């Protein structure tokens, strides 16, 4: 099995020189030690930097790690209001390095992995949150017909589909019985709202999946589109609200217990109001369902990461094991959200 931590740079260079205009080897590759899904490498070449994202080798869950979908959606968004990196080429021949991969622009920006955003002024912090809201609304305002993404997700009720999908994914990677997760799955299945919007959704929208310009608050690129599809936009919004309920720090990356007002960070209610204004919406009903769903899906994702670590093909094994221990907590928080 190919190692997720290394890359056959000679094979990549040979393929890229044949498929990307102006690409010249040799390559030096450095793996980004973030993310738990598709291993990502910075490529240093004589003609400049690039970024490569690959599907992990080994036995994978069905439909997971779809780098071809990441490449397609970001290519489609190139001329929209959604900031994305430029896509160069997609390789769907696993014989090249052992799994599919694509090469994209290395965006020059700063990554913020702490939603408290230390070391900036309150004004800049507030501006970054306003920008997060603007970009989220831009994603949900994309004309999917015009950009060729109308078939990017199947028809039907998005949440019904997602609850079914992530229940199957969770069961496929289940390592212990978690009563709260069983209860959350049952509650979500019994409370699915009617489908009333069909939009592009990112699937994992949060501050550490964005790159911001080196100075100022503008977003330079939204990253990590693996979970994107056509579905209900409130799933993205709820994912943010869910993330902010996590503990602050390197693991939780949340805002639990943080005095937001003193830092210029909007409350959940204020952020939802900003979002509704940006999309000209009167308000959002059933918000507790969407947040409960966000906790459920994250528990399913983390369970899959944990199982891959146990199987020996996680992108960051040590962190994957730590994250896996949090699945019962996510399930419990999901039930708390379900109960209002």
Structural class: alpha+beta
Give the radius of gyration: 20 Å
N-end to C-end Cα span: 46 Å
Supply the CATH superfamily name of the largest domain.
Aminoglycoside phosphotransferase (APH), C-terminal lobe
| Biggest sheet features | 5 strands, antiparallel
User: Regions with pLDDT < 50 over 5+ consecutive residues?
Assistant: none
Tell me the domain tally. Answer: 2
Instruction: Please state the second-level CATH architecture of the largest domain.
Output: Alpha-Beta Complex
CATH topology of the largest domain: Aminoglycoside 3'-phosphotransferase, Chain: A, domain 2
The overall average pLDDT, rounded, is 92
Number of helices: 11
Number of strands: 10
Helix content: 40-55%
* N-to-C series of helices and strands: HEEEHEEEHHHEEEEHHHHHH
**What sort of overall outline do the alpha carbons produce when their principal axes are compared?**
globular
Which CATH class of the largest domain applies here?
Alpha Beta
Strand proportion: 5-15%
Question: Which strand order does the major sheet show?
Answer: 1-2-3-5-4
Key traits:
340 residues, alpha+beta, Phosphorylase Kinase, domain 1, Aminoglycoside 3'-phosphotransferase, Chain: A, domain 2, 3-stranded antiparallel β-sheet, 11 helices
């Amino acid at each position: 099995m190919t190692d997720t931590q290394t890359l056959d740079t000679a094979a990549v260079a040979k393929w890229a020189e044949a498929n990307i205009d102006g690409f010249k080897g040799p390559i030096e590759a450095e793996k980004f030690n973030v993310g738990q899904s598709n291993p990502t490498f910075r490529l240093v070449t004589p003609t400049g930097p690039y970024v490569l994202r690959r599907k992990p080798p080994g036995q994978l869950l069905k439909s997971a790690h779809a780098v071809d979908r990441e490449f397609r959606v970001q290519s489609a968004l190139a001329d929209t209001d959604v900031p994305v990196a430029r896509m160069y080429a997609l390789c769907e021949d696993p014989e090249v390095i052992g799994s599919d991969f694509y090469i994209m622009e290395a965006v020059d920006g700063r990554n913020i992995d702490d939603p408290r955003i230390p070391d900036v002024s309150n004004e800049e912090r507030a501006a970054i949150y306003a920008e997060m809201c603007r970009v989220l609304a831009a994603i949900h305002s994309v004309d999917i017909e015009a950009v060729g993404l109308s078939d990017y997700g199947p028809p039907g009720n998005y949440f019904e589909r997602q609850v079914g999908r992530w229940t199957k994914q969770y069961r496929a990677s289940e390592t212990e019985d978690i009563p709260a997760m069983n209860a959350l799955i049952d509650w979500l299945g019994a409370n699915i709202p009617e489908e009333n919007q069909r939009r592009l959704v990112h699937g994992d929208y949060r501050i550490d999946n964005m790159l911001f310009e080196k100075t100022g608050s503008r977003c330079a690129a939204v990253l990590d589109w693996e979970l994107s599809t056509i579905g209900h936009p409130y799933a993205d919004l709820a994912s943010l609200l869910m993330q902010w309920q996590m503990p602050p720090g390197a693991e939780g990356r949340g805002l639990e217990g943080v005095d937001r007002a003193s830092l210029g960070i909007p409350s959940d209610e204020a952020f939802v109001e900003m979002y509704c204004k940006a999309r000209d919406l009167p308000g959002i009903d059933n918000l507790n369902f969407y947040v409960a769903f966000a906790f459920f899906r994250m528990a399913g994702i983390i369970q899959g990461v944990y199982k891959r670590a146990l199987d020996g093909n996680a992108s960051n094994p040590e962190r994957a094991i730590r994250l896996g221990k949090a699945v019962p907590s996510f399930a419990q928080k999901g039930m708390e959200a379900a109960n209002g």
